[in-house]
Design brief:
By secondary structure, this protein is of the alpha/beta class. It contains 13 helices and 13 strands. It comes from Microbacterium tenebrionis.
Length: about 375
């Protein structure tokens, strides 16, 4: 089965896509990655999306319009990607998270928009969507779902190994004596918010850490940021831009009672990511760390992690067969395959759910919905580049 995975992450800068050709035999799943890519959101659409995100107020009318416009943007990307490989059998779309409801340290709900019917209409294949909520109904956080892929890729490593994703939010999967996975805290979210608010880079992020390199860490601000109670919560836990956003940064800067150069602010927020991640990796005794997401292209973050973790081998996720830039898109292709074959694509230790659940809702394609024969379980996964 050839499955196309789609998502836009917490950096909400564009749409990532991967097409994977899966073949299963006796529980061993092999996936040939035929195509990966990323398509930026149109500038006007991204601006509307950013303006509607928490803590800003919005309207149901705006949510409805964004649901359609983002769905159509996803459909365009899916149509082109499917055509480039001669067609696909199914699509799995994560959509765009606009709110993740956490209360009393429990996930209560989550909302992803990007109407999947537009994708089904454009591609003609069934679309799996709304993949997080079923995990939440089973007591999980609905995140990090990537822990399912991480465990399959890391299970053969000796000792304690981990996979780290540095998107808007940093999440980690630790595999050793059992499995733990959770959101550490902000990776790029706070830096990106400052870059965008002050128009420092039209791309919306600190390319090659150029701005951070020009600044210095403000120890007083860093100490205040590190004191956030979220970091002390036990796993499993999840967070998002509902907590870590521009107003959060401005409140902490205002509390200093003095001016702070923008370069120093960006440098300090970058160091926050390094220290919060390094602290958790060291505490888990991780010997092998595979990194993915946009933050793995930030040399200041990667150099900082390697310096702070001299006993840990820090590599890019490419070494596991999952492109560091496309790993989450590959994940959603995998989730789509699992849902079509009746396999729960979640591990309780990864999200906190009581039991595994089959994820998602299926929108039929252009013809009758025909499900393949169920597969009992997966005993392994191998990924290769096509």
């Amino acid at each position: 089965m050839r499955v196309l995975g789609l998502l836009s992450g917490t950096s909400h800068d564009g749409i990532d896509v991967a097409v994977v050709d899966f073949d299963e035999s006796d529980g061993m799943l092999r996936g040939e990655v035929l195509r990966t890519g990323s398509v930026p959101y149109p500038a006007a659409l991204r601006a509307r999306l950013v303006a509607a995100l928490p803590p800003a107020a919005t309207t149901l009318a705006e949510v409805c319009e964004l649901d359609t416009l983002i769905g159509q943007a996803f459909a365009d990307v899916a149509r082109d990607a499917a055509a480039s490989v001669g067609g696909v059998d199914a699509v799995c779309s994560h959509g765009q998270t606009v709110f993740h409801w956490v209360e009393d340290d429990r996930a209560r709900g989550t909302l992803q928009i990007g109407q999947p019917a537009w994708i089904a209409e454009a591609v003609g294949a069934p679309v799996i969507s709304d993949v997080r909520i079923r995990d939440i109904t089973a007591g999980g956080h609905g995140a990090p779902l990537v822990s399912f892929l991480d465990e399959l890729l890391l299970r053969e490593h000796a000792g304690v190994s981990a996979a780290l994703n540095l998107g808007g939010i940093a999440n980690i999967t630790v595999v050793g004596d059992g499995l733990r996975a959770y959101d550490i805290g902000p990776a790029n979210a706070l830096v990106d918010a400052v870059i965008s608010a002050y128009g420092l880079n039209p791309l919306g992020y600190d390319e090659d850490a150029a701005i951070a390199r020009a600044g210095a860490v403000d120890d007083e601000l860093l100490t205040a940021l590190l004191a956030d109670p979220y970091y002390a919560l036990p796993a499993p836990k999840s967070t998002g831009k509902e907590h870590f956003h521009l107003a959060y940064v401005r409140e902490h800067v205002a509390a200093l009672g003095r001016d702070l150069p923008i370069a120093d602010l960006v440098r300090t927020l970058t160091e926050l990511t390094v220290q919060t991640v390094a602290r958790d990796v060291a505490a888990a005794g991780v010997g092998y760390l595979a990194v993915s997401g946009g933050g793995c292209r930030n040399p200041l973050i990667m150099d900082g992690l390697r310096a702070a973790l001299p006993g840990t081998e820090v590599v890019l996720a490419d070494e596991l067969g999952a492109s560091a830039d496309a790993k989450e898109a590959i994940l959603f292709a995998l989730i789509g395959w699992c849902t079509m074959h009746g396999i729960p694509a979640v591990i309780p230790g990864g999200t906190g759910a009581r039991e595994p659940r089959i994820l998602g809702t299926i929108t039929p394609g252009s013809g009758p919905l025909r499900m393949p024969e169920p597969v009992a379980a997966l005993r392994g996964l191998e990924l290769t580049a096509g």
